[in-house]
């Protein structure tokens, strides 16, 4: 019987909670500039491998389109100073997440090449996680709770996140079992998030 592969945190299988290192001081890398046609020709994998180059000025955040979940429309993604990319497929009409509270989300997690490595849908139930307390990846905290140029999600909303390595696991591999690591070092991660509701 195959072992259950931990995805976002080695101590707790199938749970994206992890205490990540503090965010580094932002630098000023060059700005990416790709046309829609050029992006589609280059392919998502090539583009995502270059996403480390993000503008330092959040007001001038790069916007570009990328292919999302099969069957969903193109997503106009914005990048903020931290390097996080986000876009809303559907804006929720419920309340935003209260910092420090437990919330329920459905998610699908992918590598930069589009390969799915974890999904709450496969388990048939949403994930309960504590938001805004450093218990999850910094990219998930910022991408759901908001801040740093990212608006908060609202219950019922669906958002796509592109999480750079420094807001994910950084230079260390993760999801390791018997020396075999499911998430490589310096991995850019893609998340499809559905904000189901506040945990009660």
Summarize the structure.
GO terms for molecular function: peptidyl-prolyl cis-trans isomerase activity. Residues 100-199 form the PPIase FKBP-type domain. By secondary structure, the protein is α+β, with helices and mostly antiparallel strands.
Number of DSSP helical runs: 4
**Whole-number total of structural domains:** 1
Distance between the termini: 35 Å
Q: Which stretches of 5+ consecutive residues score pLDDT under 50? A: 1-70
Broad structural category: alpha+beta
Overall geometry: globular
Query: What proportion of the residues is helical, as a percent range?
Result: 10-25%
The largest pleated sheet is described as: 8 strands, antiparallel
Number of strands: 10
What's the Cα radius of gyration?
A: 16 Å
CATH architectural grouping:
Roll
Report the mean per-residue pLDDT as an integer: 74
The CATH class name reads Alpha Beta
Strand content: 25-35%
Tell me the CATH topology.
Answer: Chitinase A, domain 3
| Topology pattern, helix = H, strand = E | HHEEEEEHEHEEEE
Features:
Chitinase A, domain 3, 200 residues, 10 strands, two-stranded antiparallel ribbon, disordered N terminus, eight-stranded antiparallel beta sheet, single chain, alpha+beta
Give an overview in words.
It is a single chain. By secondary structure, the chain is an alpha+beta fold. It has one domain: Chitinase A, domain 3. The protein is about 10% helix and about 30% strand. It contains four helices and ten strands, in the order H-H-E-E-E-E-E-H-E-H-E-E-E-E. It has helices at about 35-40, 45-50, 120-125, 140-145; strands spanning about 65, 75-80, 85-90, 100-110, 115-120, 125-130, 160-165, 175, 180-185, 190-200. Strands 1, 2, 3, 4, 5, 6, 7 and 10 form an eight-stranded antiparallel beta sheet that branches. It has a two-stranded antiparallel ribbon with strand order 8-9. A hairpin with a 4-residue loop joins strand 4 and strand 5 (about 115-120). It starts with about 35 loop residues before the first helix and ends with a strand. The model is unreliable at about 1-70 (pLDDT under 50).
């Amino acid at each position: 019987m195959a072992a259950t592969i931990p995805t976002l945190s080695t101590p707790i299988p199938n749970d994206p909670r992890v205490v990540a290192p503090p965010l580094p001081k932002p630098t000023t890398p060059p700005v990416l500039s790709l046309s829609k046609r050029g992006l589609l020709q280059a392919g998502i994998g090539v583009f995502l491998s270059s996403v480390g180059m993000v503008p330092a000025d959040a007001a001038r955040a790069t916007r570009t389109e990328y292919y999302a979940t099969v069957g969903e429309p193109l997503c106009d993604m914005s990048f903020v100073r931290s390097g996080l990319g986000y876009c809303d497929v559907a804006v929720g009409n419920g309340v935003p997440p209260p910092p420090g509270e437990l919330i329920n989300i459905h998610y699908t997690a992918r590598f930069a090449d589009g390969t799915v490595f974890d999904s709450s849908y496969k388990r048939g139930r949403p994930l309960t996680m504590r938001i805004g307390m450093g218990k999850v990846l910094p990219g998930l905290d910022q991408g759901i709770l908001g801040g740093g140029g990212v608006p908060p999600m609202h219950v019922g909303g669906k958002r796509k996140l592109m999480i750079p390595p420094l807001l994910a696991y950084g230079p260390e591999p993760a999801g390791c079992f018997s020396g075999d690591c499911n998430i490589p070092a310096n991995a850019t991660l893609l998340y499809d998030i559905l904000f189901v509701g506040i945990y009660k």
